[in-house]
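Case study 2.
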Amino acid sequence: MKIEVKSNCPLNSFQPCRHNPNTGAEVDEWACAIAWLPMLLIENSQQQRQTGAAVESFRNEMVKANEVSQQVLLAAATATPKLIGGI
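Prediction:
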């Protein structure tokens, strides 16, 4: 959709993203920021999905590390101490 820039736009100097999040094609078009809102909302949703996936991956790694730490602590707690020098 081609929109002519008018002087009545409150966000006239806003520069939107430079690619279409649906197609990945470069966007070489200036328009009112309010006209760009649907495309920016789609881009925001994509970024939120990527962030959620990264957080989930980090959580899984932390769960693995905690399980290993618990196993080490449990092994240390159940091991019988060896006396040095027979005392």
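Residues 7-78 form one domain.
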